[in-house]
Amino acid sequence: MSDMRFGSQAGASNMCGVTLMNTPVGRVVADAMGAKEGVTLVEYPSMIRVDGTRLLEFDYDELTEALGEPFDGSIFEEISSTHYGRMVHLDDRTLLFANPEDAAEYIGFDLLAHG
After folding, report:
1. How far apart, in whole angstroms, are the C-alpha atoms of residue 10 and residue 7?
2. Which of 26, 41, 42, 49 has the fewest Cβ atoms within 10 angstroms?
3. Is the pLDDT assigned to residue 95 strictly greater than 80?
């Protein structure tokens, strides 16, 4: 007997995401991200999944304002556990891309040279 709750999809989903710890800081970050267009939150007792279409941008200035205290890449690393998509850390933001080609300019990948 087949269980229809589980399955697979061979095509690209155009989605990317990260799992945040459900802590006071993680909660504020999730809420700030969930207010953005194309971003959905799924809450579990100890974690919050943040999923986005095409691109997730964790802008440190926006998150600093939402938290009322400094937010940077080290804090992002502390509150995140897993992710899917191509992650790029910059000085002022962390980006997650659903499609690696969209991250080409950040990771030094020349799309023309590689076909």
Report:
1. 10
2. 42
3. yes
C-alpha to C-alpha distance for 1 and 21, rounded to whole angstroms:
36
Tokens of residue 57, six digits: 């941008």
Sequential DSSP letters for 48-82:
EEEEEESEEEEEHHHHHHHHTS---HHHHHHHEEE
Q: What percent of the chain has pLDDT over 70?
A: 84
- pLDDT at residue 108 in the model: 75
Residue 70 has pLDDT above 90, yes or no: yes
pTM value surpassing 0.85: no
| Residue 19 neighbours by CB under 8 Å, 6+ apart | 47, 48, 49, 50, 80, 81, 82, 83
**For residue 18, which amino acid is it?**
V
Residues in the chain: 115
How far CA 12 is from CA of 25, 29, 54, 73, 109, in Å, comes to 32, 27, 11, 28, 20
Domains contained in the chain, CATH given:
15-95 (3.90.56.10)
Given a contact cutoff of 8 angstroms between Cβ atoms, the answer to whether 93 and 59 are in contact is: yes
